[in-house]
């Protein structure tokens, strides 16, 4: 979706503000926000793609006015309600009022190291051979889906070169909506700066994205 | 904008109260274990951080065979040092050269190689960096105090899929014969994102 998350090339946000010796957390609640988000995800009710889509579906004004951990928590409340774990009445009361759906699993403290060390690999076998190979010229699709996609607006309808064939990966555009993993080949595609930004582009710039096969057509 | 709250909690901070309420609801329903949150926080506050990535880079500087492996199969090479897991499942290492400087961004969210760099800094997740890294990388680097020669090529890697990128900065001169442990002190988090170069030996 052409949501607030799709930031590449937008203007007006001001300078980057690196913070010297930045701490990992700026408030105690950020620690709890990280942990609550990971523990809730570990229940197994939604995928990382669905959670990304919940975050980018916040109203743009809300998204831009929120810090990163605030975005996480606001989207987490949406996911918990959608999947029947938390109700509006729970949130209004600030405590458990209504019964909850049954999770696939509950992450216990003793299992955290193993779960974090394992992560969540999302490479998958693809039944068909890769359509493109390194060096192929391609054009990205021009589309404006209302659902989740990982093809940023700045890289739509652009000519680029396949630099590397990666692996088969879960396709987020369908997985985010519960329509299955439908794995596809992923490629690293490189664009000249001028192809993307046109007049005045930095002549020394190239930009790459990682693109699922259905985002690409032969050029 | 991304960070306008106080650097501490108090009972008047509505967002702190909102997170606390959510944790309470989920705990009372038996859906989460608060002790698991403590372990997660401790992991990313004390165990998994940019020191991991610095050891990877130092080894690549010191050991050409490891560097070749890192280039070919970063996930396995990094995994051999014990750095695996969440947001590091599919790693790529990109090497700075005399001709090309690499810079990593996630314009669409905040994808970042947690297994080697830990949790991302606020600026990496905030709109100024995410919006400008792909269109004006030189301007962004200037804000980090890094001015690249105008002839240097810049390659920006937008992490749009599940590959996570680690920049291997150029090894500075003057550190010949150094141990990997000492070399690792020259490798900062920002150097492995691409917003800095490796430190010069003192």
UniProtKB/TrEMBL annotation, chain A:
The UniProt record lists the keyword Lyase: yes
InterPro entries hit by this protein: CN_hydtase_beta-like_N (IPR049054), CN_hydtase_beta_C (IPR042262), CN_hydtase_beta_dom_C (IPR024690), Elect_transpt_acc-like_dom_sf (IPR008990), Nitrile_hydratase_bsu (IPR003168)
Domain Nitrile hydratase beta subunit-like N-terminal: 1-108
Catalytic activity of the protein: an aliphatic primary amide = an aliphatic nitrile + H2O
Keywords: Lyase
Catalytic activity, EC: 4.2.1.84
Enzyme class: lyase
Annotated Nitrile hydratase beta subunit domain residues: 121-218
MF-aspect GO terms: nitrile hydratase activity; transition metal ion binding
Gene3D superfamilies in alphabetical order: 2.30.30.50, Nitrile hydratase, beta subunit
Cited Pfam families: NHase_beta_C, NHase_beta_N
Similarity-based family: Belongs to the nitrile hydratase subunit beta family.
Function description: NHase catalyzes the hydration of various nitrile compounds to the corresponding amides.
Protein name: Nitrile hydratase subunit beta
Automatic annotation (TrEMBL), chain B:
Catalytic activity: an aliphatic primary amide = an aliphatic nitrile + H2O
Pfam families for this protein: NHase_alpha
Any GO molecular function: transition metal ion binding
EC numbers on record: 4.2.1.84
Taxonomy, superkingdom: Bacteria
Residues annotated as binding Fe(3+): 106, 109-111
Stretches assigned to the Nitrile hydratase alpha/Thiocyanate hydrolase gamma domain: 15-196
InterPro entries named among the record's database cross-references: CN_Hdrase_a/SCN_Hdrase_g_sf, CN_Hdrtase_a/SCN_Hdrlase_g, CN_Hdrtase_asu/SCN_Hdrlase_gsu, Nitrile_hydratase_asu
Class in the EC hierarchy, top level: lyase
Keywords: Iron, Lyase, Metal-binding
Family named by the database record: Belongs to the nitrile hydratase subunit alpha family.
The protein's name: nitrile hydratase
Lineage, top ranks: Bacteria, Pseudomonadati, Pseudomonadota, Alphaproteobacteria, Hyphomicrobiales
């Amino acid at each position: 979706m052409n949501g607030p998350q799709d930031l590449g090339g937008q203007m007006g946000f001001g300078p980057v503000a690196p913070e010297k010796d930045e701490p990992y957390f700026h408030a105690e609640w950020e620690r709890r926000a990280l942990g609550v988000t990971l523990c809730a995800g570990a229940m197994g009710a939604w995928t990382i793609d669905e959670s990304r889509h919940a975050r980018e579906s916040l109203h743009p004004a809300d998204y831009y006015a929120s810090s990163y951990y605030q975005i996480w928590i606001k989207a987490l409340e949406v996911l918990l309600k959608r999947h029947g774990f938390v109700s509006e009445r729970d949130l209004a009361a600030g405590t458990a009022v209504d019964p909850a759906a049954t999770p696939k699993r509950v992450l216990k403290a003793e299992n955290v190291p193993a779960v974090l060390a394992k992560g969540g690999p999302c490479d998958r076998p693809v039944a068909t051979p890769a359509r493109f190979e390194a060096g192929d010229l391609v054009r990205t699709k021009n589309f404006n889906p209302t659902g989740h996609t990982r093809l940023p607006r700045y890289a739509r309808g652009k000519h680029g070169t396949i630099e590397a064939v990666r692996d088969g990966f879960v396709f987020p555009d369908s997985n985010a909506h519960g329509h299955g993993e439908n794995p596809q080949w992923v490629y690293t595609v490189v664009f000249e700066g001028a192809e993307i930004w046109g007049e005045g582009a930095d002549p020394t710039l190239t930009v790459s994205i990682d693109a699922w096969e259905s985002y690409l057509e032969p050029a | 904008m991304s960070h306008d709250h106080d650097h501490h909690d108090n009972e008047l901070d509505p967002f702190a109260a909102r997170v606390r309420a959510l944790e309470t609801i989920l705990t009372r329903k038996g859906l989460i274990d608060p002790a698991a949150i403590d372990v997660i926080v401790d992991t990313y506050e004390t165990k998994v951080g940019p020191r991991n990535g610095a050891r990877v880079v130092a080894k690549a500087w010191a050991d050409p065979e490891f560097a070749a492996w890192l280039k070919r199969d970063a996930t396995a090479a990094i995994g051999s040092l014990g750095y695996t897991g969440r947001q590091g499942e599919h790693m790529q290492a990109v090497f700075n050269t005399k001709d090309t400087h690499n810079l990593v961004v996630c314009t669409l969210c905040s994808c970042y190689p947690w297994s080697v760099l830990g949790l991302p800094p606020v600026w990496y997740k905030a709109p100024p960096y995410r919006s400008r890294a792909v269109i004006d990388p030189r301007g962004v680097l200037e804000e980090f105090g890094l001015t690249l020669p105008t002839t240097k090529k810049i390659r920006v890697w937008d992490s749009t899929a599940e590959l996570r990128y680690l920049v291997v900065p150029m090894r500075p001169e003057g550190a010949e014969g150094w141990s990997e442990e000492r070399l690792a002190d020259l490798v900062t988090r920002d150097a492995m994102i691409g917003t800095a170069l490796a430190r010069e030996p003192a």
